[in-house]
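Narrative progress, year one. The postdoctoral researcher (J.K.) led the effort to move from monomer predictions toward full complexes, under supervision of the PI. The following entry was the first complex the group processed end to end, covering 422 residues in total.
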Amino acid sequence: MRPAKISESAVRRLSLYLRVLDAFELAGKTTVSSGDLAELGGMTPAQVRKDLSHFGSFGKRGLGYPVSELRERVTEILGLGRRWRVGLVGAGKLGAALFFYDGFRGQGFDVVGVFDNDPGKIGQHWGRLVVEDIESIDRVVRAARIEMGIIVTPVISAQSVADLLIAAGVGAILNFAPTRLRVPPGITLRNVNLEIELESLAFALTHENGA
Amino acid sequence: MRPAKISESAVRRLSLYLRVLDAFELAGKTTVSSGDLAELGGMTPAQVRKDLSHFGSFGKRGLGYPVSELRERVTEILGLGRRWRVGLVGAGKLGAALFFYDGFRGQGFDVVGVFDNDPGKIGQHWGRLVVEDIESIDRVVRAARIEMGIIVTPVISAQSVADLLIAAGVGAILNFAPTRLRVPPGITLRNVNLEIELESLAFALTHENGA
DNA sequence: GTTCGTTTGTGATTGATTTCACAAGGAAAG
DNA sequence: CTTTCCTTGTGAAATCAATCACAAACGAAC
């Protein structure tokens, strides 16, 4: 039930299954086969079954998986059976876009702290929150029991912000700054690097056909 | 020189090498070893050498790689020796954040078309551009010879926008809508799904220690 | 010009992930 | 109750990616 080691990509597929299951539940289906899940999720039936089998056996042979129950189980596995408190560092345009995006709240993530080091931004009201000074990260993260950090600062500040968040007890960081952050063992780091994404498109277009 | 098949992850590492090389060039170094690149890029020396060897042999044994020349070669390999014309669909907060982000221009990507279907947004001036109706995608993409699309629309519109872009000749799409797009063979698709990133953090925090 | 220390390039190896293929389980029909 | 038709769960096999380890190449020193 608590498996040895699940690959990063398998975990990401679980998130996809969850969305497909939502769609099936909305459509009123009560059971789905691994083939159904694979079809809409864009992978193979065998992979769906293998992924799910790491966490137990939820399906009935000959019939498939019960939509509602599987959705609950995957939600639980992903750690989405509760709400998460998130701190957002960087109150620029991208920070604002993320803050006001509803999708996070819908999935259980509440941004309960916003930070910047620009005196022009500190003190601004964002929804019910006030933008705090980066200097206050330690205090606010502890007071609000913030568990995850999102870094949307320029490259130059990213590492020091990460250090501050970690010192204050944050255990996981989502980094949008296009730089490699160093974090101690035990801290989970994921990077979203938009430049790399575009560059990978450029590579694909350049090499797809002798062009 | 034109290798058979390069893994997606190897291409992404090339982007990282490019950034590390920039840093070394700025610092005035003329040569770097695979060890140096690995140190700052966060991978192993062997991997650096293997990645680079797919495209030729750029280094000198006993000495390392010439920074400036290697930077040029990697730039060329990634297809960044030219500028790319990009269309941005979705003029919401996230679209605006991406549009006004300087990093893309710096890497050779010019957003030369912005689209939305909200009458309140169509006609707005963004920098030198005017936000166009989604209905005009076909005309504008052809006229401006747009090569890549970035989709930052709600889920509901994402697939139809992708279809429009592809029909107009776009060969690569970067999709931010949290849904799976279907694209024909030959079209390159990359997804950035922020919900999945957060969920993978939640999974990590939930499973890291019996907590 | 020989030796020494360094670093590349790469075949071989190991490791991880995906796919295959099939036995076993279950529902349904007669 | 037996047969038929599906679909799961999972070892085995195949594919793909990362790491190892070492011969070959080069510069520097003397």
